[in-house]
Design a protein that fits this description.
The structure holds two protein chains of two kinds. By secondary structure, chain A is mainly beta. Helix content of chain A is about 10%, strand content about 40%. In chain A, the strands form three sheets. Chain A has a three-stranded antiparallel beta sheet, with no helix packed on it. In chain A, strands 1-5 form a two-stranded antiparallel ribbon. Chain A has a two-stranded antiparallel sheet with strand order 2-4. Chain B contains four helices and nine strands; from the N terminus they run ααβββαββββαββ. Classes of the chains: A mainly beta, B alpha+beta. Chains A and B meet through strand 6 and strand 7 of A and helix 1 and strand 1 of B.
Chain lengths: ~110, ~230
């Protein structure tokens, strides 16, 4: 996958860190100190459709040229997460019990075009 | 995609940078609360004393590393927790006792659990940890009470008689009782400890003591009911 730069236009992963102190949640969330709420953004033109991230191999470049030339049914392709992992939280519930849980698929590690 | 469609961050890209950050922070809050099944963030917690928390964590680690010798008076009904479901969200809950109405020879302890967790999970295993402060041998009856659906009283869910030989930790399996409580309106476990008259309370003197009773429960998200239609 590709991480977004300042002027990325193609499909990439935009990092976004939420510091629990900044939103006033540090009193009830014991660990971690924040949440990497990364998200996928950017264009998925037809000739890169179906390739997670931006593949750079020669074979893919040729494939892309063929796709662009054929421009068959111009279907949409979306920039979506291709790899995600859980968010482990240790927090106080409203009865001040201490709860540890792993919320699946909460952190996006990489993006790609459908 | 059109703003407000199924894609939560799409509409954000068109906002001004400052507003964009606020919108994303709000989205992060909603996302975490939704996954924890909380309607709103909990109020400011009353954390347990540091000593009680450290002692509980040490006991949990000791129990996990060598359950056979973790503590005298180990009581289990021999149940093996059902294998945690693959991919279902799992929870580990540590709940410290609240003191209930007590006399010189009868002590009540309450363990509260939030409805959000109780409604959306099923108990895999739950263990009550009790520390006996009395130095010598002592007969103790431990009763697990639960609200009587038919009225205001409590019914005895289980009763265990212990002959405690010396001061130290004892554990009691409370999984079945907690599982049935999780199906009720107020998931609250009440433990009654009774000793013969004039024997004096078997527990540490007060709440801040680092040997205060606690319950450790492992739970997992209830499997979503799948309806099959033919």
């Amino acid at each position: 996958g590709v991480d977004c730069g300042a002027d990325s236009r193609m499909c990439c992963r935009q990092e976004f860190f939420v510091d629990f102190k900044e939103i006033g949640w540090e009193d009830w969330i014991i660990q971690p100190e924040g949440y990497h709420m990364n998200y996928c953004t950017g264009l998925c033109p037809l000739h890169v459709a179906g390739i997670p991230g931006l593949a750079a191999s020669f074979h893919t470049a040729v494939l892309n040229r063929i796709k662009a030339a054929s421009a068959a049914a111009a279907v949409d392709s979306c920039c979506v997460p291709t790899q995600r992992r859980p968010l482990s939280l240790l927090y106080y519930d409203r009865d001040s019990n201490i709860i540890k849980t792993d919320i699946p698929d909460m952190i996006v590690d990489s993006c790609g075009c459908t | 995609e059109a703003k407000g469609s199924g894609c939560p961050v799409c509409g954000v890209a068109s906002l001004a940078p400052g507003a964009q950050r606020d919108a994303l922070l709000e989205l992060a809050k909603q996302s975490i609360l939704a996954k924890l099944r909380l309607p709103a963030r909990p109020g400011v917690p009353q954390p347990p004393s540091r000593g009680a928390l450290l002692t509980a964590l040490r006991r949990m680690r000791a129990q996990r590393s060598d359950p056979a010798t973790a503590s005298p008076g180990m009581l289990r009904d021999g149940r093996v927790p059902s294998r945690p479901g693959m991919g279902l969200q799992e929870y580990e809950i540590l709940s410290f006792a609240e003191s209930g109405p007590s006399t010189s020879h009868r002590v009540h302890l309450h363990f509260r659990f939030s409805q959000e967790v109780a409604r959306s999970t099923e108990i895999l295993q739950a263990t009550l940890y009790l520390f006996w402060a009395a130095p010598g041998a002592q007969p103790i009856t431990v009763r697990l009470l639960q609200p009587d659906p038919a009225g205001p009283n409590m019914t005895v869910a289980s009763e265990t008689r212990l002959e405690v030989q010396r001061s130290g930790w004892t554990t009691l399996d409370v999984g079945a009782t907690l599982q049935s409580l999780f199906g009720q309106e107020t998931p609250r476990l009440t433990v009654e400890l009774e000793v013969p008259k004039d024997w004096g309370t078997p527990l540490p003197s007060n709440h801040s003591d680092s040997h205060w009773p606690f319950v450790v429960a492992q739970a997992q998200a209830r499997t979503p009911h799948r309806l099959h239609r033919r």
